[in-house]
Design goal:
The protein is mainly α and about 250 residues long. The protein has three domains: about 60 residues, Arc Repressor Mutant, subunit A (Orthogonal Bundle), CATH 1.10.10.60; about 130 residues, Tetracycline Repressor, domain 2 (Orthogonal Bundle); about 35 residues, no CATH class. It is built from 13 helices and two strands. A two-stranded antiparallel sheet has the order 1-2. Strand 1 and strand 2 form a beta hairpin. It starts with a helix and ends with a helix.
Length: about 250
């Protein structure tokens, strides 16, 4: 390899520095510039492509509609989440796994705080975009629920538990994320999301590895060389799924 191959010359560096952004990014940048200047409803696809310097065909090659240009990164993030869940093993604690999957969404927002805050403000003003965003959130929740349904298959109320946990993960994540966006991206978004998801793991997840500690109102006795004996004390009227969860928690089982 020659020296010219190993490192670009000054002309090459200057050309790279002044190179236009990829067409997809250019369309997003042009769209948001116009949304901020004119408003979403007053901006057309023709306006966007004119500012980006491309044709309508190029726009629809990347985005099926004007709404899609507002959420250009969710398809990639959803694919990353699905791949992350699929790559797990039976040894992974299911609730922790879906919480980690939700953190991929946070990472997407945190990669570009300025853009994320602008999009948040825009969706608050445009009802159609808010409805579109809710449909995207539902797709994330469905991906989490499908993973959990497979992991909870065969358990009492496994499907119900999967759907409830998936909804709780999405609600906790979005609560912390939107608080961060309302603050204009100030503060530690990761810490806020971790704190919110911690409540989900505490309510639904498996206790940490090690000798299980009996929750309040519950006693567990275990003697070496003898069969395990578990005595559960629960309040009258407690749902069966909660009693089962306490037993499983004590035994340290998934």
């Amino acid at each position: 390899m020659s020296s010219s191959d190993a490192s670009p010359g000054r002309g090459g560096r200057e050309q790279a520095a002044t190179a236009k952004p990829p067409m997809r990014d250019a369309l997003v940048a042009a769209a948001f510039r116009l949304f901020l200047e004119r408003g979403y409803e007053q901006t057309t696809v023709d306006d966007i492509v004119a500012l980006a310097g491309v044709g309508r065909r190029s726009f629809f090659r990347y985005f099926p509609s004007k709404e899609d240009v507002v959420f250009p990164d969710h398809e990639r993030c959803l694919a990353d989440m699905t791949a992350f869940l699929s790559s797990g093993t039976d040894d992974d604690e299911p609730v922790r796994r879906v919480c980690d999957a939700a953190r991929l969404v946070l990472r997407m927002y945190a990669e570009n705080p300025t853009f994320s805050v602008q999009r948040y403000r825009l969706t608050r003003k445009v009802p159609g975009l808010r409805a579109y965003e809710l449909s995207v959130v539902w797709r994330y929740e469905r991906a989490l629920a499908q993973y959990l349904r497979a992991r909870f298959a065969g358990r009492p109320d496994g499907t119900l538990r999967a759907d409830v946990v998936a909804a709780a993960v999405v609600a906790a994540h979005n609560n912390a994320l939107r608080s961060w966006l309302r603050s204009d991206g100030q503060g530690d978004a990761g810490a806020a999301v971790d704190h919110a998801l911690g409540h989900v793991q505490e309510a639904f997840g498996r206790p940490p590895a090690g000798p299980p500690s009996a929750p309040a109102g519950q006693w567990s006795g275990r003697d070496e060389g003898q069969d395990d004996v578990v005595v559960v004390v629960s309040r009258r009227g407690a749902p069966l799924w909660r009693v089962v969860q306490e037993i499983e928690s004590t035994l340290g089982r998934d």
